[in-house]
Amino acid sequence: MPSETLWEIAKAEVEKRGSSENEGDGAEIGEKSVFFIGSKNGGKTTIILRCLDRDEPPKPTLALEYTYGRRTKGHNIPKDIAHFWELGGGTSLLDLISIPITSDTLRTFSIVLVLDLSKPNDLWPTMENLLQATKLNIDKVIMKLGKKNSKAASEMRQKMWSNMQKDHPDRELLDPFPIPLVIIGSKYDIFQDFDSEKRKVICKTLRFVAHYYGASLMFTSKSEALLLKIRGVINQLAFGINKSKSICVDQNKPLFITAGLDSLSQIGPPPLPDNDIGKLHARSPMELWKKVYEKLFPPKSINTLKDVKDPAKDPQYAESEVDEMRIQKDQLLRSPRKIPTLRGWSQLAAVSRAEVSRLLHKQPHSAWPALLPP
User: Fold this and answer.
1) Which residues form a coiled coil (predicted)?
2) pTM above 0.90, yes or no
């Protein structure tokens, strides 16, 4: 029997890869995206840098930042590429969530929610706002995708249940997130010194939320051992490396629970006396847990927009010439009576035509001759 030619082997390999991609499992797709959202200053950048083996100090994320990583699979085989997106500002920039989530990337997209355990009063509103906004955008993309490719949209909905065993006792009580979700509790080194009762409430609440959404849950800190475990989880999302099956549900240790391995019976009821639970009126289990959590950790009423710093004043973006012109512009706007000549206007490159027009219209007609060049 004659052996296959080189061209026949190459053709068969291409057809094999094509059929694998069409199946929608993403196993052979060389590009994946991981979107980091979460608490402001919660450690998202630190986790990304650690996963990419970049030894550099983390800088504050201004708005939405992007970087990427590569992984070699073998000799003469194209490298896998992972796209890392990071949303800064906590919950103040929810409109930017829609940018990286597209119909082209959604089938290989994952969400990593990083929550600052050292700020329990901000934990629930941060988690709720970010997950709701993200899910809303994902649902819109899936709906749009369904109009063009109903098979792909159907496969995505079925894939939501991939982490949950068919005979899991809680299967009918859960509402899996549309795409893979990992919840990371950061700053465990501070959290471990909390009162045991507070730690119990936070741990049980996060376990319930993660289990309800079919997500993985784990705690981390600056500890190298914990960062290595987190790195393994992120690499699984980014490059398809085998998923860890380890589990730790002891509230006196850093939690590590892979999606689908927890259960409502192990988590238990909300940590509140039975007679108090009866007084709470909730329309769903999620709302009940929220009310119990916020009873102990009431959210702070802070305008999230106040947390966003002016990027023009951020030292990491300093440009001496531009900054000097900006100072002149700000001084001009604060003192509109001191209007330079047209020559002066031409030198203030940072002042837009709209602003010039607005300032001119504020002056009486009698002042206009002073604006003409000498």
Assistant:
1) none
2) no
